[in-house]
Amino acid sequence: MSCSTSTDLRPFILPSTTGEGLSPARKVNDNYPEKVRRLVLIGLEGVGKTTLINDLTGTKFETSAGKEGCRVSDEQIGSFIVEQYQIDLIDMIGMNCKDPGQWQKELQGRSDAHGVIFYVNGSNGRQSALGDLPRFADYCYNLTIPMLFLYRSGELDNFKNCGESFEVRSQYVKTTDKVQYENLDAVKRKIVDKFKSHTKLDTLIDPIEFCKQMTQLKKVNEQLRQDFEKLQKELQKSQQDVEELQKERQRSQQDFEKLQKELQRSQQDFEKLQKDRVNHSAVYEKRLQKEKDTYTNLKNDMRDREQSYNNALKKEQQLNEALMTKNNEHAAKHEQLIGRYDRTTRNVFLILLLIFVLLGFILFHSRTGMIEDFTALLERS
């Protein structure tokens, strides 16, 4: 299994510090003194890691003939001191190109470190470019673990300036060809200068497991990217909504200020009405009392008028009764007059009849001189 070395692998924080993304590793030991730096030395099998530790620290660990690596004990550590900094170099089993991943079994026991030193054979760039070494280098780059690249002819602390592929980096290594392990004091100072500012212990995990989980993390990263783009669109829409809400808020604020002014005017009008009400209250009370008095007078007047009306009605009834009595009397008198008239008429008729008889008699006796007698008779009558 291999791990991609392309530039799309973005650096991320060591999983052991966050507890997210990767499998848990062994707990880091934080009890190191302030000026002690614990460094893991990694290289291909037979490159001379143990020999370098012996030369730098004065230890006498067993070394190999150069073609095959030797067995490294669990506590194969050499130390040296420069400028009051103690550097603990932890020897690591060599990486075997024919048996990749074998050294990973030894990694967990030496995983707590302030940094990693890659030891490369500058005279054999192709060998340095094979096996697990380039994968582990990219792995450490991604975990942002402090690293230093040392060569059998010197030291170089940055690989990124040499290009993207490990083969190009190896060709750069072959440009120097000095005596092996010369100028060890400069190498020690270079190691101290590189790692003295790094006080944090990092936990290294299995790179093979890391590569497996990197695929999952890439998928998660892609999903997160899509979610991020979606969130950006939603954020943009939310910003537009916020702008619209701000405009609406401004309009509402203007309306609110307008309503406040109207409320102030209404308050002033209300206060004025209250004053007018107080001022007109006495006038109203007087007017009300006057209306009450007028009502009382009208009521009394109506009662008097009603009483007068009743009295007049009684008088009218009495007059009607008297009139009826007089009418009855007049009727009786009228009947009497009619009786008298009838009698008078009858008498007149009799008188007239008598006159006509007398006239006939006179006419009849005119020849005989009876007229004078008749006249005398009339006079006597």
From TrEMBL:
**UniProt domain G: residue ranges:** 39-127
An example Gene Ontology molecular-function term: GTP binding
Q: Which residue spans traverse the membrane?
A: 347-364
Instruction: Identify the CDD domains for this entry.
Output: Ras_like_GTPase
UniProt keywords (A-Z) are: Coiled coil, Membrane, Transmembrane, Transmembrane helix
The protein's matches in InterPro entries, at most eight in alphabetical order, are given as:
AH/BAR_dom_sf, GTP-bd, P-loop_NTPase
Where in this chain does the entry annotate a coiled-coil region? 214-329
The name under which this protein is listed is G domain-containing protein
